[in-house]
Write a structure and sequence with these properties.
With about 250 residues, this protein is α/β, with parallel strands linked by helices. Helix content is about 40%, strand content about 15%. It is built from 10 helices and 7 strands. It has a 7-stranded mixed β-sheet with strand order 1-3-2-4-5-6-7, with helices on both faces.
Length: about 250
C-alpha cells in the first residue's frame, strides 16, 4: 500500500504533479490553486519528503514511480495528465515507461534523461559527500538557493525552506543515489505521448543540452524556454507557467 501524503483537490480530469529533490506537495502551491478550478489535482509528497517525511524513503527512481502508480491505482485513477519537476521529471519518464498508455499528456519540467546530470553545478557524488560532511541542515540551506535567480531572496523561497523541515539525511542521500543510478535516455524514443518540455535559461542544475536531448528524442514534443528564470520557474513566474500549461492541456 502506498502510504504517502496526497493532496487531492478539484474535480474533473486528473492532473498529477510530481515534485523534485527536497520538494513537497506544497511546492506546487500556485499550481494547485490555479488548476484545481479546472481539473482534479493530485499532488503527492514523495516518501521521506515534505508532508510524507515519516514514510520510508526510496533509493530508486523506478521504486518512486511504482509508489505513485500504486497511489493512482488506490484512487482508481485510470487516465491522467502528468507533470514532473527535476527529479520528479525522471519519475514521470519512468511512469510513462511503465504505464504510458494511461498518460494523456506529459510535461517534463527542468529535467533531463540522465540522472547523474551532465553539466550540473556539481555531481551527485559531490552533493552526497557534502551532505555527509556538512549534515542535512547546512546542505539543505546550500542547495535550494541555486534553484532561483534571486537565490534565497526570492519571495517564494520560503516554500523550499518549509519543505525540508523534517527531511532526514538518509532520505536526501537515497534520492541522490536514486538519481545517480537512473538513466532514461534509451527510453525517450518510446515516449509517444504529446510532451511539453519547460526550462529556465538560467538553470544551473540542467543545461540546455539536457532539455534539447529530451526534445530531439521524444517524437511528439516541444520545448518552451523561460528567459531570466532558473530551476524553479513554477515559483519564479507562476502565472506565466500556469497559463502555458493550461494552453498545452486544452
Amino acid at each position: 500500500m502506498s502510504n504517502i501524503y496526497v493532496d487531492d483537490i478539484g474535480k474533473g480530469f486528473p492532473f498529477v504533479f510530481i515534485h523534485g529533490y527536497l520538494g513537497s506537495s506544497e511546492m506546487w502551491r500556485f499550481q494547485k490553486n490555479y488548476f484545481s478550478k479546472y481539473c482534479r489535482v493530485i499532488a503527492p509528497a514523495l516518501p521521506g519528503f515534505g508532508e510524507s517525511h515519516s514514510a520510508k524513503s526510496l533509493n530508486s527512481i523506478n521504486d518512486m514511480a511504482n509508489n505513485i502508480i500504486e497511489m493512482l491505482n488506490q484512487k482508481k485513477i485510470d487516465r491522467f495528465n502528468l507533470i514532473g519537476h527535476s527529479m520528479g521529471g525522471m519519475i514521470v519518464q519512468e511512469i510513462t515507461k511503465i504505464i504510458g498508455d494511461r498518460v494523456n499528456k506529459l510535461i517534463c519540467f527542468a529535467t533531463g534523461s540522465i540522472g547523474d546530470i551532465p553539466g550540473r553545478f556539481e555531481t551527485m557524488d559531490e552533493t552526497r559527500e557534502q551532505l555527509k560532511k556538512e549534515g542535512a541542515k547546512i546542505s539543505f540551506s546550500r542547495v535550494p538557493p541555486k534553484w532561483f535567480v534571486k537565490g534565497n531572496k526570492d519571495k517564494n523561497y520560503f516554500l523550499c525552506e518549509k519543505a525540508v523541515t523534517n527531511v532526514s539525511l538518509e532520505t536526501a542521500d537515497n534520492a541522490l543515489l536514486a538519481m545517480k543510478n537512473w538513466s532514461g535516455i534509451d527510453n525517450l524514443k518510446n515516449i509517444r505521448n504529446e510532451t511539453l518540455i519547460i526550462w529556465g535559461d538560467k538553470d544551473i542544475s540542467y543545461n540546455f543540452d539536457q532539455v534539447d536531448t529530451l526534445n530531439k528524442n521524444i517524437k511528439n514534443s516541444r520545448l518552451e524556454i523561460f528567459k531570466g528564470c532558473c530551476h524553479n520557474v513554477h515559483l519564479e513566474q507562476p502565472e506565466k507557467f500556469n497559463i502555458l500549461i493550461k494552453n498545452f492541456l486544452n
